[in-house]
Design brief:
The chain is α/β, with parallel strands linked by helices. It has nine helices and seven strands; from the N terminus they run ααββαβααβαβαβαβα.
């Protein structure tokens, strides 16, 4: 009886791994071939013909990842994604969010057609992808060395971009949390909000790490899981009469997360 149960457990584990592998491969197929077949040529067209390709690139990125999450919903039906409907209406704001998984930025990009974010510098060096994120107006994580010119160019136009309805979203912890707790904050995004007098929206994401766990390659699709993304606070300071300091903004953000137990 024990041996039979062991065989059944081994078979179930193998079946789960096959399903997880199939979903992961399907998503990677979309990332590679979906981009090459359906999105590479629009990027080239807008880059050559548009006076402001940045807007079109951001919208294409958003559409690309919306399709990705639709594929994920179909291939992994045990994974539910619940989104605060008010997020799609955010504009002209700096958005901060806790960070649990590599899926987090993809989800935010899919929800925000006009968006910029901060990207690790090694991605700017990648063939094709590096060119796309640069043309999309994304900011490098450092302003040192060859990235100083990119950062200066983006900061010079950030005020106009935000006033025109664009959003800057960031993960102020700078890296994925391994234990669900809020890590040390980087102040860059809050300095930008203060500099350009932008409202700050505080978002909280939950359970994305249960689907795509840091340090693992395969999606964990066989467990029942609900990924949620919601607004937990809004900071709309009176920048004219009582402008907050960057430290005050940071304390407000951290307080929102501690009260929400992110």
């Amino acid at each position: 009886m024990v041996k039979k149960q062991t065989r059944n457990s081994s078979f179930d584990l193998l079946a789960d791994q096959i399903i997880d592998c199939s979903v992961t491969i399907t998503c990677w197929i979309w990332f590679i071939f979906g981009f090459l077949l359906f999105f590479s040529w629009p990027y080239l067209i807008f880059a050559r013909l548009s006076e402001n390709p940045e807007i079109h690139f951001q919208k294409l990125n958003s559409l690309f990842y919306r399709i990705f999450f639709r594929i994920l919903r179909v291939t992994a039906p045990r994974q539910r994604i619940e989104i605060d409907e008010q997020i799609a209406a955010i504009n002209s704001s700096v958005i901060v969010c806790n960070h649990l998984s590599y899926l987090d930025p993809l989800l935010l990009i899919s929800l925000l057609p006009r968006h910029k974010t901060i990207v690790k510098t090694q991605f700017f060096k990648a063939p094709i992808f590096g060119w796309i994120i640069k043309k999309s107006g994304y900011l490098p994580a450092t302003s040192k060395g060859p990235f100083s010119k990119i950062m200066i160019e983006q900061m010079e136009t950030m005020g106009t971009y935000l006033k025109a309805g664009g959003n800057l979203f960031v993960f102020p912890e700078g890296t994925r949390s391994r234990n669900g707790q809020i890590g040390e904050f980087h102040m860059g995004a809050l300095k930008i909000a203060r500099m350009y007098k932008a409202p700050v929206y505080i978002l909280q994401i939950r359970n994305s790490d249960k689907l795509f766990t840091p340090g693992k390659f395969l999606f964990n699709t066989r467990i029942k899981n609900t990924i949620s993304l919601k607004i937990i606070d809004r900071i709309k300071p009176d920048y004219q009469k009582s402008p907050p300091s960057t430290a005050q903004l940071a304390r407000r953000v951290q307080q929102a997360y501690y009260e929400g137990k992110a």
